[in-house]
Amino acid sequence: MTNLGSIKTKLLSVHRYTEPEVERITPKLEEIDRIRNEKRAVILAHYYQIPPIQLIADKAGDSLTLAMAARELGPGDGLVVSSTVYFMAEMVKLLNPDKKVVIPDVAASCSIAEGMNAQTVRRIRETYNDAAIVAYINTTAEVKSEVDAVCTSANAETVIKNIKGNQVIMLPDYFFSKNIFGKLGKALQDRKCLAYRGIERGNIVLENVSNGSEEKISIEEAAKPILPDGTCMVHNKFTPIDIYEYKSRGNIDVVLAHPEVRPSIAALADVVGGTGKMIQYLRTNPQAKKILFITECDMAAPLREAFPERDFFTPCRFCDYMRKNNLDNLLNSLRNEVHEVKLDPKIEAGARRSLERMFELTDGKNPEE
Ligand code: SF4
């Protein structure tokens, strides 16, 4: 049984919930715990979920942590509730084809995932048939089925370094790709590295990161993705002013930023990386007491818990997609086993292959831990 007393204490002391708020949500947490135990269900939650969901979940983490947890589920585990956005729930299903995987709200999408589709990858492949194409994990199963490997914010550098090919193409998040290629620098050796920038005037535009030149491929209107680029609608909104404002008050020791931010923001941060890297940094730098945090607001929750004695500041921006999940639809999902994630059998094997390739290229490890 989950220790609900400890969840309530954390909500009050770490996450600053009020007592009436905690009293209001306690019956929901109790019911979630009761049904979870009855069904031997497993709840996986992303770090961008609200704190009570992260706390009641069996596992909360970033994409890679959740992928690794999903891979370890066994025959004793029943229903899997993926309290995440849809591409992550698909990933959980890909790694557990025989289990029933549900998501609280099917409308929980992602602006990065909506910025890429299979037709676009196929057009790129036609032109660059010997390139290694690496997709960020924030893509649909259909896109994953068309690429050579997948990567997450935690392991992208390792995946890119280890994948073979004289040309490497990263998609769909232009800012993320630029930040990762930029960090790798000389480790890229003489390989030609292209970052997908988006669809501009009827063309797929790729940017050669070594000299900034553009390479274009035409694409038909009907084949375009939903969104013209694949950046994160939360992270692409941060501006240098967000950092300067806090720094000008003179009370910030360190700036941590997620690699989906614009390169101009990444350049102002002391650490650019996923949650694991941020936690690692704070563990080894006890002198960093006042921390400015440039990422989705709820991501501060696991850091506040890990380092309760430090002060976290964040120019708060929430992900509307992640916020579609709440305790009510999580409970509904668990109780009524909705909404089930189903995969097209034609793409399933290919998408799983790209995910497994990621684990092979990183020896199944999380480089940030
Ligand atoms: S925070 Fe950005 S990357 Fe994450 S789900 Fe929301 S839109 Fe997608």
What count of domains describes the coordinates? 3
Strand order of the largest sheet: 6-5-7-8-9-10
Straight-line N-to-C gap: 28 Å
Number of helices: 15
- Estimated share of beta-strand residues: 15-25%
Number of strands: 14
Structure description:
This protein has a six-stranded mixed beta sheet with strand order 6-5-7-8-9-10, sandwiched between helices. The protein is globular. It has three domains: 4-108 and 322-336, 3-Layer(aba) Sandwich (Rossmann fold); 113-230 and 345-361, Rossmann fold; 235-313, NadA-like (Rossmann fold). The mean pLDDT is 95. With 369 residues, the chain is of the alpha/beta class. Strand 8 (192-200) and strand 9 (203-208) form a beta hairpin. The chain has helices spanning 4-13, 19-39, 51-56, 63-71, 86-95, 118-127, 141-144, 156-162, 174-184, 240-248, 263-266, 275-284, 300-306, 327-336, 345-361; strands at residues 42-46, 59-61, 80-83, 101-102, 132-136, 149-151, 167-171, 192-200, 203-208, 214-218, 254-257, 271-272, 290-294, 311-313. The chain is built from 15 helices and 14 strands. Helix content is 39%, strand content 17%. The structure holds iron/sulfur cluster. Iron/sulfur cluster binds at residues 48, 85, 110-112, 138, 232-235, 296, 319, 321-322.
